[in-house]
Amino acid sequence: MRTRVTDALTAVTEVRDGDTVLVGGFGMAGMPVELIDALIEHGAGDLTIVSNNAGNGDTGLAALLAAGRVRKMVCSFPRQADSWVFDGLYRAGKIELELVPQGDLAERMRAAGAGIGAFYCPTGVGTPIAEGRETRVIDGREYVLAYPIRGDVALIRAHRADRLGNLVYRKTARNFGPVMATAATLTIAQVSEIVEIGELDPENIVTPSIYVDRLVEAPR
Amino acid sequence: MRTRVTDALTAVTEVRDGDTVLVGGFGMAGMPVELIDALIEHGAGDLTIVSNNAGNGDTGLAALLAAGRVRKMVCSFPRQADSWVFDGLYRAGKIELELVPQGDLAERMRAAGAGIGAFYCPTGVGTPIAEGRETRVIDGREYVLAYPIRGDVALIRAHRADRLGNLVYRKTARNFGPVMATAATLTIAQVSEIVEIGELDPENIVTPSIYVDRLVEAPR
Amino acid sequence: MNQPLGKDDLARLIAADIPDGAYVNLGIGQPTSIAHYLNPDSGVILHTENGMLGMGEIVAADQADGDLTNAGKQPVTELPGAAYFHHADSFAMMRGGHLDVCVMGAFQVSADGDLANWHTGAADAIPAVGGAMDLAVGAKQVWVMMTLFTKGGEPKLVPSCSYPLTGKACVTRVYTEVATFHITPGGVRVADTYGITFEELAERLDVSLIRTQ
Amino acid sequence: MNQPLGKDDLARLIAADIPDGAYVNLGIGQPTSIAHYLNPDSGVILHTENGMLGMGEIVAADQADGDLTNAGKQPVTELPGAAYFHHADSFAMMRGGHLDVCVMGAFQVSADGDLANWHTGAADAIPAVGGAMDLAVGAKQVWVMMTLFTKGGEPKLVPSCSYPLTGKACVTRVYTEVATFHITPGGVRVADTYGITFEELAERLDVSLIRTQ
């Protein structure tokens, strides 16, 4: 259905307590800071956040964690030089952590968006990540069964959008955005600029409008 | 390893009798006609061809079939108004047919390129396509297990390439090219134009050079 | 009493039922004609499984671009706001449940919404499935556009399909020249009739029908 | 007799061993420094798992573009011929066996090529794996760059890893300050030594070593 252009706070009003929220970004590159700020203001809590990292410094995802809104982090790389907010919560037993290898995180969200029920993945075979999971040998190689990760909501940052909701990204800030957009019931994208329909070259669209429900302009 | 720019006949010299060859195109859009002509001249036979259709008219894939080089077609839609070459061979019992739904064809090649061992797919559940195959109910929905389709060689057509082998496509001629490029041991791409390194915008590359082994310029 | 619908009227009727802003795939053959009757202001965006959103009209051969076709391989145009993508992405979009509506032709539809539209099962037929099975499992709503009876007068809305299936329990609406059916958990509801009475319809079909109040 | 290698010498050595035209992923930490010693004419193309081929050098903060970083989140440049892609495509590239070489750091490597580099297993440690497991199973060649001994003098090339694994039987070469090891189906071959004799090495490691003839 048609993408709605709105302000950040209006965009996040449908987020509910207990939701699973996919949050784009690799560190701060592609982090939808304005949408997260709106989510903090909106007030939804008890959230499960799926994101590559567990917050950097004191802004963006780290601020959401600091506000006590997150019950559980699903991520590949929580421990960083500037992840003090997460580190404190984790050591105090105030947040759950589910560690997922980075490629599994991406592929499991892709599976959710692509209607794949589960897939056999070679990543993590013979490691603690595979413990307790179903494995299978296919053509002589061992794989672990991986299930989709779906979001109730995705918050992503792109570079430019047209009014239909087609998105293009900028450099490595693209990272998880295109995959998360496909994997959530409600996808909210913030972009630096919204342009008229026809201004983006159809050959270069990275996220087609079908995946974008709400569009927020946040110039930078 | 580095992409080699060459002529069509040199590009296909490594194709062997009995190889599985992925052939791009949806009908004639994206069909690598010059590469197929070179393959006919090269002479390899007993081929398994994976392509959406089974040839149109008398050129391209249809010409390869007419030359008697194909043992088996793996495709989603052989029967078309202009598929007389295939139709004749099929009715004469001179060619095998493995029918694969179009999305499975794409996703199974993607799995091959992405290192996925197998995946549970909802397509074809309860239909003859699912007969004899493993099924599983996940979250209340039934899926069929699908395995990767790998090629020894992929022959694809793109629009432009830089000398490194980065590719961009044109309109719906993109179709299977980007997926096939990832799924073959040797990927050969024909393009209308080869440009200097740096002339293609890194944001707009559809097939990165890592997937392209041989590059053939075939102006049109 | 009203009349059975002509093909154009049927296409116009279906076009009018497609919600504004919907993302829609129109199957090859008859459903393709629905595009012609979509209101340009509706914001409906057409998907074609060969890798495009924002597909425009079919064009004549002298305006054809061989690189730009619909799923039936007819030359088409590109509308402003279009986007191209490869086949794996296109079918991820279909299979992942992102399309609001698809409209396909059919040989048979069962009272449970089973769809048969790819193979007559005839021994000498060359089977071809294309993207029909992916659409059947993927689109949020699967609508069928067909004649209600074969040329021989046999009903195509049946208790159980005799032809090989394309998808199970996937069809939600069946549009025909004499009636529109909604396939619901409670049964097959006749939403509208054209040139036929509910009673005549009930007599000619071997399927229990629910009358719209 | 030659000397143990400094960190820069080790990076230079590994850079020289990377084949011309190879697609290479350099892990975060020490392996990142190898990029500095690649010959620009070698045609080696660097992959970074956050979605890029054709990554250039690390740049200073005043030249940083926040949207352009390496896997260690340091600002980098884009080289001519670069390409960006999203995370699922980036890891499909890794997992699908398309990278020629990756170089990672390690806590331990076993004689069978098992790799442990993500978790010390310490009770209070916060685990973080990132893309290491995907690289371990995906790259055609997995090379390790590490010191051969811990600060406490314990060998890090071991009969069997005591730390949690990143990947099984994946490492093909181990580059250290005192020796380069090739892990082959026949065993661990010492390809080169720096400031240590084969005999001294054999004595300090609990792993059978094969001497290069």
UniProtKB/TrEMBL annotation, chains A, B:
Gene3D superfamilies reported in the protein's UniProt record: Glutaconate Coenzyme A-transferase (3.40.1080.10)
Supply the InterPro entries for this chain: 3-oxoacid_CoA-transf_A, CoA_trans_fam_I, CoA_transf_BS, NagB/RpiA_transferase-like
User: Has UniProt tagged this entry with the keyword Glycosyltransferase?
Assistant: no
Give the keywords, sorted.
Transferase
**What Pfam families does its record include?**
CoA_trans
Q: So which domain of life are we looking at?
A: Bacteria
User: Record's PANTHER family?
Assistant: ACETATE COA-TRANSFERASE SUBUNIT ALPHA, KETOACID-COENZYME A TRANSFERASE
Family per UniProt? Belongs to the 3-oxoacid CoA-transferase subunit A family.
Identify this protein by name.
3-oxoacid CoA-transferase subunit A
Origin species, per record, is Actinoplanes sandaracinus
From TrEMBL, chains C, D:
By its UniProt entry, which SUPFAM superfamilies does this protein fall under?
Answer: NagB/RpiA/CoA transferase-like (SSF100950)
Q: Please tell me whether the keyword Transferase is annotated for this protein.
A: yes
Keyword Nuclease assigned: no
List the keywords (alphabetical). Answer: Transferase
Task: Classify the source by domain of life.
Answer: Bacteria
Query: Which InterPro entries does the UniProt entry name for this protein?
Result: 3-oxoacid_CoA-transf_B, CoA_trans_fam_I, NagB/RpiA_transferase-like
Matching entries from SMART domains are given as: CoA_trans
Q: Which family does it belong to?
A: Belongs to the 3-oxoacid CoA-transferase subunit B family.
> Sorted alphabetically, which NCBIfam families does this protein's record hold?
pcaJ_scoB_fam
Name of the protein this chain belongs to:
3-oxoacid CoA-transferase subunit B
Its source organism is: Actinoplanes sandaracinus
